[in-house]
């Protein structure tokens, strides 16, 4: 059913060809149809790709086996889908091209599109800003595409020329005995182009440094170490490459009263031992203002009380954590005469209660030993 050509036919070899035969045959075809030798020739480009695909399959014993047995259909399930373009071919066969040509086979490697750099900005937020989110503006210094030359690097009205040193190839060739050695052209640094009239706006670099205001929306619930990515707010790419990204690293200031543990906030509230014993209702600060907190009768040191849902929203779910209230029971240090008298009375009651209990215990113990 397939209209694809037979791989052995493409490479012009017998079905029992050895690996060396495959390689040597592929080498000839790759040289003949190499895009550097056939600029703009679509037919040559197709043949170059075809040969690469055939060689990619046949040099791999597993793929070759599948192909021998089932033809092109046999490769469909193997995850091999041919090559998307030259870059694919060169990255897959870099080592072979190194052998063939003395370089990796990339055409003018310097002229490839390049993604712009990512940028980092460290942003310190107040505790409440982190808890509730904020929209703010940050000032960053970054490179932008030069508005004078639009990144072309040439003075408007002029254009690049082919590099004279390498004739536009980006590579220079030297013969050393039998070998041909190729290296990146030192004049154009592999780009194949020279710029006789560099843009005055950017001194020929294609980019200029600018101070820029970027508005950033900080979501509620960010914490120390949170990182926001602003896609495309990094530096511009070169030669049509995509923009880099801007990463905002978050630092959160401490709060005088609240501490944070993920989406919970923790605070410590002092109460008197009388409030602990008798119970009370006290005012406690929350992120949204004061709120009444019931202190249960008989609260013990170390007890923890909660305001459910008064914490910080979770970045993932948006659900708010809790406010955790640690009660700290204070013992009074300066007592008035009356307070002291009352406490002594209280102590007597306590001790008579205690001694009654003790007597009961001792009685119980005595009856046990009598048995
Ligand atoms: Zn050059
Ligand atoms: Zn410029």
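Q: What amino acid sequence fits the structure above?
A:
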């Amino acid at each position: 059913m397939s209209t694809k050509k037979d791989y052995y036919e493409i490479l012009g070899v017998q079905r029992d060809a050895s690996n060396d035969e495959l390689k040597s045959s592929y080498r000839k075809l790759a040289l003949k149809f190499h895009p550097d030798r056939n600029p703009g020739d679509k037919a040559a480009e197709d043949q170059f790709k075809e040969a690469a695909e055939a060689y990619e399959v046949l040099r791999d014993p597993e793929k070759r086996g599948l192909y021998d047995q089932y033809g092109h259909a046999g490769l469909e399930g193997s995850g091999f889908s041919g090559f998307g373009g030259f870059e694919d071919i060169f990255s897959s066969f870099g080592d072979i091209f190194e052998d063939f040509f003395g370089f990796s086979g990339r055409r003018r490697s310097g002229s490839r599109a390049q993604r712009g750099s990512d940028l980092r900005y460290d942003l310190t937020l107040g505790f409440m800003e982190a808890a509730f989110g904020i929209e703010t503006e940050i000032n960053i210094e970054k490179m932008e595409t030069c508005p004078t030359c639009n990144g072309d690097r040439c003075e408007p009205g002029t254009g690049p020329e082919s590099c004279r040193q390498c004739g536009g190839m980006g590579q220079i060739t030297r013969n050393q005995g039998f070998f041909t050695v190729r290296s990146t052209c030192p004049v154009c640094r592999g780009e194949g182009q020279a710029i006789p009239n560099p843009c005055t706006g950017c001194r020929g670099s294609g980019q200029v440094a600018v101070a820029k205001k970027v508005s950033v929306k900080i979501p509620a619930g960010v914490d120390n170490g949170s990182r926001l990515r602003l896609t495309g707010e990094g530096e511009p790419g070169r030669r049509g490459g995509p923009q880099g990204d801007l990463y905002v690293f978050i630092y959160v200031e401490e709060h005088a009263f609240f501490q944070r543990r993920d989406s919970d906030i923790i605070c410590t509230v002092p109460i008197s031992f009388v409030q602990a014993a008798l119970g009370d209702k006290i005012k406690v600060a929350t992120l949204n203002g004061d709120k009444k907190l019931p202190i249960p009768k008989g609260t013990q040191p170390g007890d923890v009380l909660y305001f459910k849902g008064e914490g910080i929203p979770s970045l993932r779910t948006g659900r708010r954590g809790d406010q955790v209230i640690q009660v700290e029971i204070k013992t009074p240090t300066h007592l008035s005469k009356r307070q002291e008298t009352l406490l002594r009375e209280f102590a007597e009651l306590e001790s008579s209660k205690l001694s009654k209990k003790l007597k009961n215990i001792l009685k119980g113990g005595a009856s046990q030993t009598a048995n």
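Q: And what stands out in the fold?
A: Residues 146, 148-149, 199, 201-202, 206 surround zinc ion (ligand 2) (CB under 6 Å).
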